[in-house]
Amino acid sequence: MRQRPPADESGHAIVDFLDEHRLPHSPENYGFAHTYFEGADEAHFMAVANLIDGGYRLRQEDVRAISAPADLHGTATTIGELSTEVMHIIGATAQEANAFVKTLTLTAAELVSADGSIHSAVARMTAQAERAEERLKQMSLQTALVRERLRSLGVDTDIDPATSLLNRIAIESVLTAALGREGPTLLALVALDQVTSIGATHGIGVVERVLRALGQTLRDHCMPHRVGRWEAKRIAIVFDNCDHEAARDMLNAARKAFSRRKLQRVENETPIGEVTCSAGLVLAPNAVSEDRAC
């Protein structure tokens, strides 16, 4: 039986699988390949394995024939099952959106046609719009259920998994709440200076680990203020009811501590080299200034 790819490689393996079989990179096909690589569904795995044995190239009809009906009623109990469920939700919604676009296109053609019936065209468009609206409502309920089950499985959906910091949505919520209270709120955005060179030398995985180390250092020196991942290469700190001088002192202390860290690759203990950071600090919600704090 094919072994499941490592967590940091499974996405690439799935994309390669789809390319090998010339299948579109759609949510439906991605979920299909994910289920196959995971291997937990024995019937699904064997159906695919038996077909592709000997070099057979899967067709879209094979994908639909093998795929089990989507479970959208909350019975998934593992992260893998939830991942597949999310793909089904996205796929079903995408199909509904495509149908809506086709209906709009046909309706537009009829409206400009000399012999087109405006009443029937508008009625069909209205019915399709109502179906799309209902589908979006169902998707909202289904994604809410997925979120709750992720929490029940011990997955904190407010945390960025790569850095263990608050994710963008969560840190924005912290910022919004702080702005609603009395006292000054400052926002700092911190960037790793050597992202490009580290990525070129050691790979994106090492960049993520260095960002994680940077986040830990910022969290240690800026307590009790909240730290989160703002963008792919930047980390945010929300200084709630804090004056500019105090926030700047904390950032500079974090900068000095981070520059003293001797980071190395876990796999072979290769030194990563010098690591430093730069930051902008501003009184929220104004735009970040060019003030270089770190």
From TrEMBL:
Taxonomy, superkingdom: Bacteria
Swiss-Prot/TrEMBL keywords: Coiled coil
Name of the protein in question: GGDEF domain-containing protein
Domain GGDEF: 183-294
SUPFAM superfamilies: Nucleotide cyclase (SSF55073)
PROSITE patterns: GGDEF
Alphabetical list of InterPro entries matching this protein: GGDEF_dom, Nucleotide_cyclase, Rev_trsase/Diguanyl_cyclase
Coiled-coil annotated residue ranges, if any: 122-149
